[in-house]
Each structure stands twice: as structure tokens, then as C-alpha cells.
Amino acid sequence: MTTFTRRGALGLAGGAAVLPLLGAPALANTKTTVGALRFTSHAASFVAFERGYFTDEGLDVDFKFFEAAQPMAVAIASRDADFGVTSITGGLISLAEKGAAKVIGGALSEEKGIDGQMILASNAAYEAGLTAPDQLDGKTFAVTQPGSSFHYMGAKIAAAEGASLSFKPLQKVGAIIGAMKSGQVDAWTIVPHIGKALTGGGAVQQIGMVADYLPGYQVTTLFTSAQNAENDRAKTEAFLRAFSRGADDFNAALVDKTAGDDAAEEMVKLVHKYVYTDRPYDKAKPSIVNGAMRINKNAALNMASVEDQLGWFKSEGLVKDSITTETLVDSSYAEAI
């Protein structure tokens, strides 16, 4: 785990820099742990941290980094982390059914006109004829775990194409990348900051876009423990406000590109502190820019997409039929779109 504290980062900036904004809630240096992946899609949290938006809300934030969605959901439910940004998975739904977790908002979304998640083929599969999604029948498809968002996307694409896929769980994104490069699996879907880097380097081939099959797909959600959602409303609302400010900055700089070139450059440098940290800036920049997808304004949640995902998990027997969207989502926080 890598830990950063906003209070420490601002400690030398002078007392005035860390004063809460007028009208902020009565929280003061409330310790808060935010779960994240080192993906451009998690940038709103990084922006809120670096620009003091969490501090403005009285939250003293640490990040806890994960390599897959499922472990993050477990950490939130066990209260090892307070808030997370991740996809809807069978594990998250089951934790919600047990009264341990709640979705409180939406984050990353597929949107027409903005490059989104890519459908990829290994070079070996591509050379053998897998050049489009309608040729997926009989192929192996990489997922982190059964019941992951990768499983959902692959299954929905296969159903649309009348294809039968063999799903191969590989636990971590890094392991999937290795398996794609070596031809151990045939296909995969992934966010553009990773997908474009792989295709640009010739490691894999792009054969389609997820948005063509799942328009408006709510890729990631904001979630917390049921305990936080029910009993710590001030803290939960403070997190959502700060996150939303970070999302607004990110969208303006890299998605809508209305903030200007200097703001875009500053944003990429900020994100680079967390994403592709093992690469020099000039090598990381194209992948970060290419990975800029819409983060929902005001953490709004696409309920139609959530309902579709929940319906698929039920149809596959991955979660109980009795689970409803109310089981999963606390609608008192989530603005529906």
C-alpha cells in the first residue's frame, strides 16, 4: 500500500491554505481512507486530494491502492477503507445484499464521441482471424475474476454477436496484459489509457469499442460501507462534494477541453503522480491523455445501466434473484440520470 496525506502535502503552504471553505461542514481533519486503482479513470479522487478539495471539506485523506475491483469492495465492507471507486461486481453486489456496502454515486461512463473502453485481440488471435467482435465465437476472454466488470462486458458483447466465449480469470490487470501479449488468451476489454498504449506499441490489436455494445455503460461507481452511508452522512456527503469538484476539473481539462492548454498540461502532470509513475512524464503523457473518459457530473448515477448490470448478474446465477437496486444503491445520495 502507498499512502499520501493531504495534510502533510500542505503543511508548508501556510495556515491559510488549509482553512476550510466558508460554509463547509463541521468536520475537522477527519481521517478518511479512499480506495483507488492507478488508472486515469480514478483521477477525480487524485485531483480532489492534490487541489485541497478534501481538506476544504474537513477530510484528511489517505489513499489505499488496489490492483482489482473485488479486493477493494471487501476492504470497504470491512471498513479498512471508507470510500472507493470501482466497477459493479458480483462481489460488491453480494456485500450489499449482506448489508455491508452501498453504491452512493456514479463515476466513469461510456459516452458517444469520447474514446472509451476498447475491445482487444491478442496478436496471435488477430493473425488467426479474430479481427472483429463478430468472430469471438469459441475464443478465450480474459477477466480478473468471475463476476467482474470484464466478465459482464465480455458476456454482453458475446450475446450481441451470438458468440460463445470461454472466460479465463487471471486475478490482476498486469497478469492479463502478460497473457494477451503471449497469446495465452484471445480477447479482453480495457480502458483507453491502457488499451491505446498496448495497441500503439503493437502488443495487441483493437477490434472494437465497448460503447458500441453498451452505450451509456456506468463503468465505475462510488461506494462506501453501509455503516458510513447510514450513520456518517456528513462525512459521506463531504466526500461526494470534494470528488465532484475533482471530476469537474478533470472533465474541463481533458474531456471537454474547455479549460485551455495550460490547464490540460497541469492536469496530466497531476495525474502522472499516481498513474504510470514508473514512466518518465513524456512517455506517460500520451496514455494519460488517451485515457480521459467522462466522469459523471455531481457523481450522478446511470440507473438504467445499474439495473442492466444487476439483471445480468442475476441471470448468470452470480448473485441472488432477491437482490434489488435498492439493496445495492442508496438513492438518497445518488442523483439518477
From TrEMBL:
It comes from the Bacteria. Its main location: periplasm. The keyword Lipoprotein does not apply. Residues 40-249 form the SsuA/THI5-like domain. The keyword Signal applies. InterPro entries: SsuA/THI5, TAT_signal. Residues 1-28 form the signal peptide. Keywords: Signal. It is found in: Periplasm. It holds the Pfam family NMT1. Belongs to the bacterial solute-binding protein SsuA/TauA family. This is ABC transporter substrate-binding protein.
